[in-house]
Amino acid sequence: MNIERLLATTRKSWASSMAPGEYAAFLTELLNAEHDRMRLLSAYLQELEVGSLEWDAIQSVQLHEIRNCVVLASLLREEGESPTPAVGRFYGRGLALSDRNARFGFLSHIQAWLVARLATGLPRVPPRARHVLQEMLDSHLATLSGR
Predict the structure, then answer these.
(1) Cα R_g (the chain), whole angstroms
(2) What is the pLDDT of residues 94-107, one digit of tens each?
(3) Would you say the C-alpha torsion 45, 51, 54, 58 has a positive or negative sign?
(4) What is the pTM of this model?
(5) Does residue 1 sit within a domain?
(6) Domain presence at residue 7
């Protein structure tokens, strides 16, 4: 077994294959979706009784979204990019929903989109970001599976 060749192959397979601009666009796309979820949760919270079980559950999810936004904004800053508070593709559609079940279904839809996007992009991101983005993916998967 040639250890050097094995190490070189491993390094190559784990090397980032996203160009810096593509990586920044990937992070921005994720950030906009996370922002949309966070904003929708805030809007939905306004309609609930503070301290109710539903309010507490939604606020807990919102705190996870805030953490994800902070992580993604930090990764963008590491790339020399300035995160923007832009509204993504989901916010307007989610705000237009009035039925609670439809709202929660839409929030799950956004989360499933985030899972798919993270899973697709994760192997190509710079190695320094993989761990934190993998944690984000795992967290979304756990929420979708009800854990």
Answers:
(1) 18
(2) 999 999 899 989 99
(3) positive
(4) 0.84
(5) no
(6) no
